[in-house]
Write a sequence for this structure.
């Protein structure tokens, strides 16, 4: 399984691997918003947390359809399914790879971008914490969606439609953590719910993902 | 090690393709599946590999190594990286014997995307000994191989049979193997291709 993680990370950073694609999208989106709305602190400050979380969500979505589609195309998904590692393990590793190549860079880049949106400095630690805790749910949910739509022609649009509604709770609670943190209020409740969603996804979804893959490989 | 299959029924999509398949392969033996296009050779091999659940009968995918039409190589990785990956997935320490058997030493540090079709095929087939599994399921393994490489592959299969392994092949080419039986799978064709009663949820939970 470590071998699979190492291979997928190596593929991601090689030419055409798509590493940094989500990050670049996130950077551009966060830069475009002040340009579009106008560099007005009173306007940007309240919408900042929502914009950053929305950007993270869409950036995650960008690379979802590659998770299994490339392996299906070249036949290695068949071979992985007949390998001695369980398909649930494959699903977990795929989601983890997606998080390391998308969610983690977003988390690291977010504080710098928050300056563009006039986010108060008191919100910055909570922005990082909320992304760190929340983005794994995006990757695990997305991997499940990718498994459902693998092998479908033009499946990536369907994938977005399937996955985006599932992202709503994470978006709501993630942005709420940042907003409350910025206002100096207690963040315990949204943070706990955010963590609960992520833990639930990480625990349950690999099994659903593996089941979806088995049906689609048939 | 003998692989024995009795009364297996296979499906492809919604259609029952084969019914009542019974076969056995002993250690050191190769079984060649014969039948026209569409007879169900690939379906049978995918079922034996555990990719498609059988409608009836049981299979033992854990002793089988499957080589499909697709090569399963990552173009951005070198030949050595591709083989090392599969070796570590299957818990094999050393890729050197497989590299030697398929004459891949000159290609080891080439990206798989830069290989010719035949070289890709050879790299893909070199995965088989790395799996350490006894029964090789080979689906048209010699596609895009030239005569010299077909002979090379024939020797690799013969070596596998010599160490007590066995192979089930769907091929139209004579590999020059010592102990070959053929099986005409047309005899197992499901005459009236009946739709399978489908319950994906039950299958997913299996």
């Amino acid at each position: 399984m470590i071998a699979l993680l190492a291979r997928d990370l190596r593929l991601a950073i090689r030419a055409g691997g798509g590493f940094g694609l989500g990050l670049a999208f996130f950077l551009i989106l966060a830069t475009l918003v002040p340009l579009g709305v106008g560099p007005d602190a009173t306007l940007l400050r309240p919408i900042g947390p929502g914009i950053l979380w929305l950007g993270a969500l869409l950036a995650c979505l960008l690379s979802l359809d590659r998770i299994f589609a490339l392996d299906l195309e070249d036949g290695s998904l068949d071979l992985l399914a007949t390998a001695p590692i369980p398909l649930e393990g494959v699903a977990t590793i795929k989601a983890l790879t997606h998080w390391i190549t998308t969610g983690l860079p977003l988390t690291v880049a977010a504080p710098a971008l928050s300056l563009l949106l006039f986010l108060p400095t008191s919100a910055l630690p909570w922005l990082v914490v909320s992304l760190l805790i929340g983005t794994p749910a995006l990757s695990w949910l997305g991997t499940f969606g990718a498994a459902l739509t693998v092998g479908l022609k033009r499946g990536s649009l369907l994938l977005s439609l399937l996955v985006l509604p599932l992202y709503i709770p994470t978006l709501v609670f993630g942005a709420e953590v940042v907003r409350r943190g910025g206002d100096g209020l207690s963040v315990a409740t949204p943070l706990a719910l955010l963590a609960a969603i992520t833990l639930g996804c990480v625990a349950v979804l690999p099994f659903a993902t593996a089941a979806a893959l088995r049906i689609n490989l048939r | 090690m003998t692989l024995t299959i009795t009364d297996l029924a296979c499906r492809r999509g919604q259609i029952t393709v084969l019914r009542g398949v019974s076969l056995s392969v002993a250690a050191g033996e190769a079984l060649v599946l014969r039948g026209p296009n569409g007879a169900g050779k690939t379906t049978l091999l995918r079922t034996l590999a555990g990719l498609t659940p059988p409608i009836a009968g049981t299979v033992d995918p854990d002793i089988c190594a499957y080589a499909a039409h697709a090569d399963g190589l990552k173009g951005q990785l070198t030949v050595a990286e591709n083989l090392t990956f599969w070796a570590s997935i299957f818990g094999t320490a050393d890729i050197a014997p497989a590299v030697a058997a398929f004459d891949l030493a000159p290609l080891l540090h080439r990206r798989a995307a830069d290989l010719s079709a035949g070289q890709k095929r050879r790299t893909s087939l070199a995965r088989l000994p790395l799996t350490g599994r006894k029964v090789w399921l080979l689906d048209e393994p010699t596609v895009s191989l030239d005569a010299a490489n077909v002979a090379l592959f024939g020797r690799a299969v013969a070596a596998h049979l010599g160490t007590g392994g066995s192979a089930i092949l769907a091929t139209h080419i004579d590999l020059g193997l010592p102990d070959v039986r053929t099986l005409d799978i047309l005899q197992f064709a499901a005459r009236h291709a009946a739709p399978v009663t489908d319950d994906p949820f039950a299958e997913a939970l299996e």
